[in-house]
């Protein structure tokens, strides 16, 4: 297989290098329309409708690993033509295959938001499942050893389970804001305390004004 040639080495840049190169010299007023220092920081990700740049990522891995296509394929335990097809854009690698390719140069797959914060996977605890061994909804907060009023079905007089979750989004978000205010004292020192749903009847019973449908 004839390996496609790489272009000339690209100059490495650091964050802010491009802005520094185009910034006006010290002592000169910025030109009209020039970005000010208060401009928001550049985001790390492309718009969501942009195709995933698998070809460019694999080429960057080869550059970092100093490996040819055949060498990278051997190290990643894939077919010799696979790397060439990925770089040519005719093959979209699976997550497992891309993970092996990235591992050749010591990289790993992670999920980040537009500010670069890594999204950590949720832990799966066997003791936090319902009676049918199903996981509780991921978008809700699980409550272990619920007290009276902390289970949404307490109003019906049903037997309280060993763990449950808040169905009321407003109560959940209010508890979260209250917890942040109580824990991060330095950050919220001069901020008045948010309302505490637990003192408004949520822990000892349904919140005031709550009615069964």
What does this structure look like?
The protein is built from 6 helices and 2 strands. With 213 residues, the chain is mainly α. The protein has a two-stranded antiparallel sheet. Helix 2 (54-65) packs across helix 4, helix 2 (54-65) runs parallel beside helix 5 and helix 3 packs across helix 5. The longest helix is centred in the last third of the chain and has 15 residues, at 169-183. It is elongated. Residues 1-36 and 202-206 have low confidence and may be disordered.
SSE map:
Blueprint: H1 17-22, H2 54-65, H3 69-76, H4 82-88, H5 95-104, E1 142-144, E2 163-165, H6 169-183
Antiparallel strand pairs: 1-2
Strand content: under 5%
Gyration radius over CA: 27 Å
Considering DSSP H and I runs of 4 or more, what fraction of the residues is helical? 25-40%
Ends distance: 69 Å
Number of strands: 2
Number of alpha- plus pi-helical segments: 6
Low-pLDDT stretches are 1-36, 202-206
**Spatial sequence of strands, sheet with the most strands:** 1-2
Helix and strand string, N-terminal first? HHHHHEEH
Helix-strand makeup class: mainly alpha
> What best-fitting shape do the alpha-carbon axes yield?
elongated
Largest sheet: number of strands, sense, barrel closure: 2 strands, antiparallel
The average pLDDT score comes to 74
Compact summary:
The protein has 213 residues and is mostly helical. 27% of the residues lie in helices and 3% in strands.
Can you tag this structure with a few keywords?
6 helices; 213 residues; two-stranded antiparallel ribbon; mainly alpha; 2 strands; 27% helix; disordered N terminus
């Amino acid at each position: 297989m004839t390996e496609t040639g790489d272009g000339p080495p690209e100059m490495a840049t650091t964050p802010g290098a491009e802005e520094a190169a185009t910034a006006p010299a010290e002592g000169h007023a910025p030109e009209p329309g020039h970005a000010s220092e208060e401009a928001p920081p550049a985001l790390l990700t492309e718009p969501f409708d942009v195709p995933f740049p698998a070809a460019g990522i694999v080429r960057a891995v080869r550059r970092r690993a100093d490996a040819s296509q055949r060498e990278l394929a051997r190290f990643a335990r894939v077919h010799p033509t696979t790397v060439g097809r990925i770089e040519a854009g005719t093959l979209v690698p699976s997550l497992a295959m891309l993970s092996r390719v990235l591992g050749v140069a010591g990289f790993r797959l992670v999920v980040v938001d537009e500010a670069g914060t890594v999204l950590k996977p949720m832990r799966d605890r066997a003791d936090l499942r319902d009676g049918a061994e199903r996981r509780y909804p991921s978008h809700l907060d699980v409550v272990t050893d619920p007290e009276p009023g902390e289970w949404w079905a307490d109003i019906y007089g049903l037997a309280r389970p060993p763990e449950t979750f808040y169905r009321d989004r407003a109560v959940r978000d209010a508890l979260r804001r209250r917890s942040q205010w109580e824990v991060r004292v330095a950050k919220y020192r001069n901020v008045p305390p948010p309302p505490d749903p637990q003192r408004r009847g949520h822990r000892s019973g349904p919140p005031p004004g709550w009615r069964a449908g």
